[in-house]
Design brief:
236 residues; alpha/beta; four-stranded antiparallel β-sheet; 12 strands; binds adenosine-5'-triphosphate; binds magnesium ion
Length: 236
């Protein structure tokens, strides 16, 4: 993924959401994106899945402009976990099958539900109805459903927007280990507010007020005098 001079302003907004971003993510790398609330982290992911087009600059995926890919090709290549997970009014099975071309077996679904701590939902079977008129999910359960979708998806690129938000530290540690294992041979871009497991990422990017203010390895950034990341680590 090659991002060059990327700037973006949301339609009908005056303030810029991302300003002149330059970032290269090599295949197979694990990249964490940090930054204050409202700094532009989620916006960057939205642009990477082409939910919006850049106002200026370009994004290349495997050497080609993002715009040349068909919608279905992009969906096959990129698994995107949004900050707010959407549950469809459908069965648990179909809520997990979503975005997967190949049919996932019930057995695999059950296994992953247990991995993410949703075994409770299996007291009924995979026909359990979710969404409108169905079994309501708590915020944490919804997050875990999103994670189950991620673990069942075999796209080579994963974009995860705060996948462990709202989960306790112990659960977070477990889930991150699962994500990293799942991504062994995949490219991972993960937005996070937390510092757990960051030393296992290849590259850390800090976005502040629409600007990509720092990027480098954990060691590089932690050693940087008066760096943004160093400051963040000290505060947390
Ligand atoms: P958080 O950590 O709270 O999730 P973030 O870094 O992900 O924050 P973004 O969601 O990327 O921040 O938002 C960046 C800026 O763009 C904010 O000023 C926000 O109000 C604005 N913004 C986000 N989504 C939209 C939208 N759909 N339409 C207009 N403005 C938006
Ligand atoms: Mg966000």
């Amino acid at each position: 993924i090659e991002i060059t001079d990327l700037s973006f302003t949301y339609p009908e907004r005056e303030t810029i959401a991302l300003k002149e971003i330059n970032l290269t993510i090599s295949k197979g790398k694990k990249v964490a994106i940090l930054g204050k609330t409202g700094s532009g982290k989620s916006t960057l992911l939205q642009l990477l899945v082409r939910n919006y087009n850049p106002t200026q600059g370009e994004i290349l995926l495997a050497g080609q402009q993002l715009s040349v890919y068909t919608e279905s090709c992009l969906r096959e290549q990129i698994c995107f976990l949004t900050q707010r997970v959407h549950t469809f009014s459908d069965t648990l099975r179909n809520n997990l099958q979503i975005a997967n071309k190949t049919q996932i077996t019930d057995e695999k679904m059950r296994e992953v539900l247990c991995q993410v701590g949703l075994d409770k939902l299996l007291e009924q079977d995979l026909n359990l109805w979710l969404g409108d008129g169905g079994r309501p999910l708590s915020g944490g359960e919804q997050r875990r459903l999103g994670l189950a979708r991620v673990l069942l998806n075999d796209a080579p690129i994963l974009l995860l927007d705060e996948p462990t938000e709202g989960l306790d530290r112990e659960t977070e540690r477990k889930i991150l280990a699962m994500i990293l294992k799942h991504c062994e041979n995949k490219t991972l871009v993960m937005v996070t507010h937390r510092l757990t497991a960051l030393e296992q990422f290849d590259q850390i990017c800090v976005i502040d007020d629409s600007n990509l203010v720092e990027q480098g390895s954990y060691q590089d950034l932690i050693n940087k005098q008066q760096g943004f990341f160093k400051g963040l680590v000290e505060r947390i």
